[in-house]
Amino acid sequence: MSLALRSAAFEHGGEIPAFFTCEGRDLSPPLEWSGLPDGTVTLALIADDPDAPRGTWVHWIVYDIPAGQRGLREGMARLPNGARAGRNSWGRARYGGPCPPSGRHRYFFRLFALDCRIGPLETADKPDLLAAMEGHVLATAELMGTYRKRGAST
Predict the structure, then answer these.
(1) For 34-49, what is each residue's pLDDT tens digit?
(2) Residues 6+ apart with CB under 8 A from 49
(3) Are strands 57-66 and 84-85 parallel, antiparallel or unpaired?
(4) Nearest-CA neighbor of 101 among 61, 49, 26, 24?
(5) Residues 53-111: tens digit of each pLDDT
(6) CA dist 151 to 15, 79, 154, Å?
């Protein structure tokens, strides 16, 4: 069995409900995973938008998620014990939902199974986390959803 990531809120390739965006409650969607490879110590999650006008926009970073955790609840107010939040492109250490300025954007939720615990990072942004994960990724899984603001131009 390989690492798999899914959400009860939307299908892979499907529309992310407005509830989880800047036009709704801006809460993180529920995520669940299965198929952790042997040797997994922690997991890391990065959610980003590669279609943003100024380059990839990071919406959410969570890392050092304990291997025993099987998902993240909707609107998670507190991280699981031991987990850490990284800084998104707004400079905040929390989820920021889809809010594309125009058109339909793709949002990738990427889960990484790691053979180590990362620990505190200097900036805890995406480049910092990716550098710390180098050589420690056992498996990855991806869930992609799309979103277009109501009334947004193409």
Answers:
(1) 999 999 999 999 999 9
(2) 56, 57, 59, 98, 100, 105, 106, 107, 108
(3) antiparallel
(4) 49
(5) 999 999 999 999 999 999 999 998 889 999 999 999 999 999 999 999 999 999 999 99
(6) 16, 34, 9
> Domain ranges in the chain?
1-35+96-109+144-149
Q: For residue 96, what are the contacts with CB-CB under 8 A and spacing of at least 6?
A: 22, 26, 59, 60, 88, 89, 90
Instruction: Please tell me the distance from the alpha carbon of residue 7 to that of residue 145, in angstroms, as a whole number.
Output: 10
Q: With b meaning 16 or more CB within 10 Å and e meaning fewer, what string describes 102-117?
A: eeebbbebebbbbbee
Joined tokens for residue 122: 């200097």
Cβ(120)–Cβ(70) below 8 Å: no
